[in-house]
Amino acid sequence: MTSTAVLALYITICCVVFIISKIIISVLLYKRWARKRRFVEESLSGGKIVMFRSTITQSLSSKAFMKKTMKLTNKDIIGSGGYGTVYRLVIDESLTFAVKRLNKGHIERDRGFERELNTMGDIKHRNIVTLHGYYVAPQFNLLIYELMPNGSLDGFLHRKWSDEKPLDWQTRYKIALGSARGIAYLHHDCIPHIIHRDIKSSNILLDQNMEARVSDFGLATLMEPEQTHVSTIVAGTFGYLAPEYFDTGKATTKGDVYSFGVVLLELLTGKRPTDESFIEEGTKLVTWVKGVVEDKREENAIDRNLVLFPVDEVKKVFAVAEKCLEPDPSKRPDMAGVVKMLEEITPYKV
């Protein structure tokens, strides 16, 4: 066989292999598309979506919403935790949601969905994140929230974003007061009362105006007005839990007050309750700050990113945090009292 014939045979084989590989890839892509399409259709037909009526959702069709939802990928993830994964869902240029997905089959996740849905259904408050709807399907559940464009307080305090300016004092105070108002609404104005059980900086979200919104009610517990506590298994986040919770297993509003006190310390110091420096020294944020306050050195504990601040106001917020963190829960103020103390710190209305 001549070299020309060999070359021609080689080219022919390469062309055939190339065409076959293209056919195989096309078939696989089609099957994948068909599976995904079937999944969307099955989800739409086998599930139930409920959108609460509002000016934001009135022009949104449930079918269009679900088709957008089924196209979400890992690139759209904006948060995740033990009770679900949160995605950014862009409907159009003017409409965006945060969608929390909870896969079924895990008892605690199923209960978390029920708790969050029962808790959030009727809540309307400027300092509580708004639930716009939910979706129930055989494979998973979805909770549809308004999107908070500035993320969480945890993100601002602890992540080193080069394009983000550190929080100034006025903004920190505004976040502290807004968060307190949101929690006080849960404790005092909701019937039955709501114990959040997981107050922490990552569950305080920030809207476009840096207004605080309390979020994530997957551990929330309902408490009738005549009750003083609810007996539960210990749950929450290490570093934020009230000491008595471990001993009694009783969830109370005073436990949320303690957790909020830890958040106040985070706002003031810029340190996590489980900061590595505390672990190395065998202490914790609460203990460290208590020593600083006793020595009247509060200004030395302030976050280094906070350059300008009114010393008098800072000391007063430290004092509020100290009251929230009383080891004896009976000596802690309730959240209505915390709000009042914070409001009295500055003459400016927030």
Automatic annotation (TrEMBL):
Domain Protein kinase: 72-349
SUPFAM superfamilies (UniProt xref): Protein kinase-like (PK-like)
Keywords: ATP-binding, Kinase, Membrane, Nucleotide-binding, Phosphoprotein, Receptor, Serine/threonine-protein kinase, Transferase, Transmembrane, Transmembrane helix
Binding site for ATP: K100
Keyword Endoplasmic reticulum assigned: no
Kinase listed as a keyword: yes
Sequence intervals crossing the membrane: 6-30
Listed GO CC annotations: membrane
Subcellular location: Membrane
Topology term for the membrane: Single-pass membrane protein
Primary localisation category: membrane
GO molecular function: ATP binding; protein serine/threonine kinase activity
Pfam family, one: Pkinase
InterPro entries tied to this protein: Kinase-like_dom_sf (IPR011009), Prot_kinase_dom (IPR000719), Protein_kinase_ATP_BS (IPR017441), Ser/Thr_kinase_AS (IPR008271)
Stated family: Belongs to the protein kinase superfamily.
PANTHER family in alphabetical order: OS01G0750732 PROTEIN, PROTEIN KINASE DOMAIN-CONTAINING PROTEIN
Protein name (record): Protein kinase domain-containing protein
Lineage per the UniProt record: Eukaryota, Viridiplantae, Streptophyta, Embryophyta, Tracheophyta
